[in-house]
Amino acid sequence: MASMLKRLSGALAALVALALMAPMGAVSALALDAGGLADDGSASITVHKYKTQSASSTPGTGENGQGLPVGAQPLEGVSFTLYRLDNAKVEGAVAGTAAPAGAPTADDVAAFLATYRDNGFAPNVQTTDPDGTATWASLAFGYYLLVETDAGGANVDPAVPSIVTVPYARQAMGGSTSYAKDVHVYPKNVSREEVEKTAIGAPDVTAPGEKLEYQIAFMVPEAGKVHASDAAAMKATVVDRLPLNAAGQPVLTVNPSFTVTALSKGGDTTALNAGDIVFSDTSASDGLVTWTFGPEIAKAIEGINSTNASNVDGQVVKVLLGITATVNDNAYNGGIDATGQPSIANTAVATVSDSDGTVMIDGKESVTPAVTTMGFKLTKVDADGNPVTSDSATFKLAASYADAVAGTFIKNGSTSADLTATSSLADGTAVFSGLSARALTSGGAAYTGIGDAVAAARANLGAPQTVELWLVETDAPDGYRILQAPQKVTLRIAKATADATVSSTVVDGPLSVVNTMNGQEGGGNFALPNTGGMGAVAFLVAGAALVAFAVASFARSRKGGKHGPSGR
């Protein structure tokens, strides 16, 4: 048997190796082929872990940079255990042990390992980093079983176990086969979320004028419950809550052109007619955009299900809504994330009922990972350090101290308006964001200080760049004295790794801007006495004391004159 297997062609071996990367049916046993590579213990397996909307039937290639489904998100904190298998047993070369037909199911892993595991190799656990990757290095050639042992708390179905062959055979066009010692594996977790919103290809930092792509996925009723008639059909509504700036204005403008796709359990997609969806944009007044799915969409989905009545994997499980949005000028005074980093984060809310009218998704909200913008946050506080929430303050930025004193501020080049941040009445915070935009000017010339620093940070990973700005308060809260002098703000701009976002941190400057109330001492002004109240009383008391002192002195002088020596 073993000699026969060794005569398998390289092309057949490559096809079998590709099949190992997917849930496998029956596969022939094979002999490990080193492809002329030296087994020097320097091979590796790298996992790239992603969350997707459905299972994929596409086999892996073993290469780095494999294409990913739309909306795939890297998963951090997922643990995998790597087991080495007994080569001879896997190849069917041991009497009494048949070659396995494929990788075991999750329930059969223990029994599989009892038969095929190489006990001389200790199981090795690795956990994915923020980019969703984990690597096992210094491996010998052979067969390995990769098992997901902890999904890291994500609401997903675990990936199926897989057998990874090292080295990995790749068949190129024309039938030639190459072998790789460093194998890249892309096991995927299928999301269990009823509603999910994903930023597609989110940039490392964004600014006004740029476009963002999103996908909203929501589950649909089971086959037979989607469309019985137009009157008895699935109803679905998706509401996108756009992020707002401190003044309550949306920082995104949603494009009314969008795509809608039916996604099957097996991963197949079918484009639906977006014209059958009613789109409503009321973001200018309430920050909301809404998609309403009518009976035509339900009818199309039920048609796909009917065609695949005997094929469960072909039946529709989710609808994918593809959206594009433009970052608008309101983002210059946009939002912040939990760490205080300026960002754009928004949520989608879905409500879905089946053809019987039973609600299956009742206003479920999905949070989208924030998209980073460039800038900083400050808080308007009073003399005691408490946020000022009784009235808002406004701030502007200058490129230099001289510009700040002269009133020459950084402008939005497309509107010639000064960049302005308004403090929130909720918590007193004000945010300058989107500062990496190239459409900025100062004194009539392009302002590229921050854009250049971002470019330098991208080119010099881990090497922080610094930029100085000058903050000017142009309108103080009612009842407070305005800040008297410009304040220097030094930003540190950095990009830690190729996959990281660009961050901005204030390393020198006011994170809290203090205003004193009218009539309070300090703030760079000499306090004048209050009029009325105790201020006037103080002067009256002092005046009365002076008069009393004068009267007493006069009385003493008179008494001295009457009883002095000349009067005796």
From TrEMBL:
Where does the record locate the signal sequence feature?
A: 1-29
Q: Which UniProt keywords apply?
A: Membrane, Signal, Transmembrane, Transmembrane helix
Q: Name one GO biological process term.
A: carbohydrate metabolic process
Q: Which InterPro entries match?
A: FM1-like, GramPos_pilinD1_N, Ig-like_fold
Domain called Gram-positive pilin subunit D1 N-terminal: residue spans: 42-190
TM region(s), chain numbering:
534-555
| NCBIfam families according to UniProt | iso_D2_wall_anc, LPXTG_anchor
Official protein name in the record: Gram-positive pilin subunit D1 N-terminal domain-containing protein
User: What organism does the record attribute this protein to?
Assistant: Gordonibacter pamelaeae
- Taxonomic classification, please? Bacteria, Bacillati, Actinomycetota, Coriobacteriia, Eggerthellales
